[in-house]
Specification:
The chain has about 550 residues and is of the alpha+beta class. It folds into three domains: about 25-150 and about 415-530, GroEL-like equatorial domain (GROEL, domain 1); about 150-220 and about 375-410, GROEL, domain 2 (2-Layer Sandwich), CATH 3.30.260.10; about 225-370, GroEL. The protein has helices at about 25-45, 70-75, 80-95, 100-120, 125-145, 155-165, 175-190, 265-290, 305-310, 320-330, 385-410, 415-435, 435-450, 450-460, 465-475, 495-500, 505-520; strands spanning about 20-25, 55, 60-65, 150, 190-195, 195-200, 205-210, 220, 225, 235-245, 295, 315, 335, 350-360, 360-370, 375-380, 410-415, 485, 490-495, 500-505, 525-530. The strands form seven sheets. Strands 9, 10, 11, 12, 13, 14 and 15 form a seven-stranded mixed beta sheet that branches. It has a three-stranded antiparallel beta sheet with strand order 4-17-20, with helices on both faces. Strands 7-16-8 form a three-stranded mixed beta sheet. Helix 5 (about 125-145) crosses helix 13 (about 435-450), helix 12 (about 415-435) packs antiparallel against helix 13 (about 435-450) and helix 12 (about 415-435) packs across helix 15 (about 465-475). It starts with 19 loop residues before the first strand and ends in a 16-residue tail after the last strand. The model has no long low-confidence stretch (mean pLDDT about 85).
């Protein structure tokens, strides 16, 4: 590429040949278009009336969902600015579990409004400064005036948050049932650390099997292992289970160094085999001596050991995932032991029952009836694999949402009510900002209205009429901050009465992420893309002659 002027007729090459470069307004405009294209992709999935997307990957596997982050993860995005919007959705998903579509739609709208300001010759840094001021004020309003405090034991609010989170997913019919499972599961694993409530949702194990219906989904007060017992002669059910948790193998180890055993006569072979047999028997006896009647091992268990364990009536499961072993320790109160020799009765976990059940086509081990489980499982059922996958995604959202309500203790009205309230307040506040930043704050306020606009549009209602109604409800003489859009009939209603409630964390994170990514895209004025490396030729070389 030729850069700079010609020096006595010689071109100066600064960048390598084949490098593409976009500068100034062209670069900004291109980035904004790409990011908006991503936002428009997920916009139609927002809200309870949102549509689903069918995604087919390179292998031909199908995913049917309207979960914003799932859609964006599955799409193979090429444009660098569009990739930044995908990151917004991922962050929102990690932090809150819900609100991924909202965050992306907001970011797209902020960029759209910024474009018209750029056309009026407002400098990008002025716009980003205005957006930052807008976010700071919006967060302050959320915390101090819009947020509604809730108590941790307020079952109905937790249920409302869970049903709201699942309202936009494909499990609409069974959401009451799933919401109650989510609330119970999170309450089970919630713990207090340093005076704060902490909900580690990863302690909830989710297993899905197709067959049955969504309403067959159940919460297990314990752990499900997708493994069967190690030997057919073992009992299929153990009551009052005392569980040994091992992360070492019950096998004869091979030595680290290379070793040979020289056997000179046949009787030595027999004594070698007898010794091996004794070792295996000692392993089974050590387990029995500790008082355990169930063994769960992360590594392998030799067939001979399984035979001896079966003789003793001990139920054994081998090759269990490390994460499952840790969850079992939390659920049963047991300790994970490395060597079988160290195993004592104090290390054993307790459960009322360990049994093998057939779920769909697979045999699974259920550890149930734990006294005070700090880790629980949810078994998802559904007609087809696609259904169980969508139920899992919905439950993940609901679990995280309930967890964030328990941790923060604050909620906000859903259905576009919070966004409209913020938009109305920020518009009034913009005048006090002054300068050109005021235009950006107004643009920020206007962008917030994209959420109720998209909700109304997806519900099949007239967005303009709905927006006018909402503004009047939030800014008129009888203003109420809780009025949002009722998607059953398109009217504007108090969201508290409709039980549409969301955690404040979802709103806060969506605002921050959207404004940050919009500011980042706006500040780029030069895109330098190096030449793509050509794909390596296939091995084998040579040409056909």
């Amino acid at each position: 590429m030729l850069v700079g002027q010609m020096l006595q007729g010689t071109p100066i090459l600064v960048l390598r040949e084949g490098t593409e470069r976009e500068r100034g307004k062209g670069a900004t405009s291109n980035n904004i278009q790409a990011a908006r294209a991503i936002a428009d992709t997920v916009r139609t999935t927002l809200g309870p009336r949102g549509m689903d997307k069918m995604l087919v990957d390179g292998m031909g596997d199908i995913t049917i969902t309207n979960d914003g982050v799932t859609i964006l993860k599955e799409i193979d995005v090429e444009h660098p600015a569009a990739k930044m919007l995908v990151e917004v959705a991922k962050t929102q998903d990690q932090q809150c579990g819900d609100g991924t579509t909202t965050a992306v739609v907001l970011a797209g709208e902020l960029l759209k409004r910024a474009e018209s300001l750029l056309d009026q010759n407002v400098h990008p840094t002025v716009i980003t400064r205005g957006y930052q001021l807008g976010v700071a004020e919006a967060k302050r309003l959320l915390e101090s005036e819009i947020g509604i405090p809730v108590k941790a034991d307020d079952q109905s609010v937790l249920m409302d948050c869970a049903t709201t989170a699942m309202g936009s997913k494909g499990v609409f019919g069974s959401r009451e049932h799933l919401a109650s499972i989510a609330v119970k599961a999170v309450q089970r694993i919630a713990e207090t650390r340093g005076g704060k409530t902490v909900c580690d949702v990863d302690q909830i194990k989710i297993e899905k099997r197709h067959g049955g219906t969504i309403s067959d989904t159940e919460l297990i007060e314990g752990i499900i292992l997708d493994k069967e017992r190690g030997h057919p002669r073992m009992p299929s059910e153990v009551k009052d289970a005392r569980i040994a948790l091992l992360n070492s193998a019950l096998e004869v180890k091979k030595t680290e160094i290379e070793s040979k055993i020289n056997i000179k006569n046949p009787s030595q072979i027999q004594s070698f085999l007898d010794e091996e047999d004794k070792t295996f028997r000692r392993m089974a006896e050590s387990v029995k001596a500790s008082g355990a009647n169930v063994v769960v091992s992360q590594k392998g268990i030799d067939d001979v050991v399984l035979h001896y364990l079966a003789k003793e009536g001990i139920y054994a499961v081998k090759q269990v995932k490390e994460s499952d072993l840790q969850k079992l320790a939390r659920a049963t109160g047991g300790k994970i032991v490395t060597g079988i020799k160290e195993l004592t009765s104090a290390d054993l976990g307790r459960a009322a029952k360990v049994d093998q059940r057939k779920v769909g086509e697979d045999d699974m081990t259920f550890v149930t009836g734990c006294q005070n489980p700090r880790s629980v499982s949810i078994l998802i059922r559904g007609g087809t694999e696609h259904v169980t996958q969508e139920v899992e995604r919905s439950l993940q959202d609901a679990l995280k949402v309930v967890g964030s309500v328990l941790e923060d203790g604050t909620v906000a009205p859903g259905g576009g009510a919070t966004e409209i309230e913020l938009a109305v307040r920020l518009r009034k506040w913009a005048a006090s900002v002054g300068g050109r930043e005021q235009l950006a704050v107004e643009a920020f306020a206007q962008s917030l209205e994209a959420v109720p606009w998209a909700l109304a549009e997806n519900g099949g209602y007239d967005s303009i009429n709905v927006l006018i109604e909402l503004r009047r409800a939030h800014d008129g003489p009888s203003a109420s901050k809780n009025v949002g859009i009722n998607l059953t009939d398109g009217s504007v209603t108090d969201m508290g009465k409709l039980h549409v409630i969301e955690p404040i964390r979802v709103k806060r994170q969506a605002l921050s992420s959207a404004a940050e990514v919009a500011s980042m895209v706006l500040r780029i004025d030069d895109v330098i893309a190096s030449k793509k490396s050509s794909p390596t030729p296939p091995p084998g070389g040579g040409h056909d002659h």
